[in-house]
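Posting for a labmate who doesn't have an account.
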Amino acid sequence: MLRLITTFALAGTLALAATSAAAAPTERSAERFAEEHFESIVLDHIEGDDPSNYHLTESRAISFGPLHEVMIAGQFCYSSDEMCTFVSSKEYVSAVLQDGEPRNVIGTYEQEPGLFAFSTFGYGDELAIALADVSGPLVHSARENAWFDYDGQTLTALTTDAKRFIDGDAITLEMYQKLLVETRSNDQGSAEDALTSGSGDVQTTKPTSYRMLGLALLAGLPLGYLLYRRRGKR
């Protein structure tokens, strides 16, 4: 039975991925995708959903701020013996302006080399407002949903979650690395404790089947957005 479930999950994953890849809009650069598709994506959300869910009104006066490349901590940032550097997440984000006011954030990401697709709409109005003052690389810590402006030495918190994570308004790169190392160490310790405490349980279901089902659901997300767009245009 589990083999049958896994087989159907894999087939669904491949079918949904193929359908989504064929129908979802893509462009050869982040700038091009933003120019061609950001406005229609936002308008689809305004017309097909409750705009207030995205900090928007029904106004169609939409514009966008500069496109920012999102940087993330490289693997060396999690080792106290290495120099911390930031690497591209391959996502680019822009503030969504409605009637000239920052309301939310929209993004595109490099789906495969040289091919950009829609990533997300909904990082929130707090980040949208903060993007206007970003002068250096935009750094994101996804686990904490923390956003920073980095000037080469210091990371300045742009959001409430970022201030909470570093317990302040700004932090040096050295101290930020120490915080990342400490956070990862605590996470690994918690995971080991959980495995130890559950070692007496008998596992009767292969985890692979759940991973396959999860992949099927993830593959369906782009298709769901396309169906949402079509619904909103009726």
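Reply:
Got it, the structure tokens are right above this. The two ends are 41 Å apart (CA to CA).
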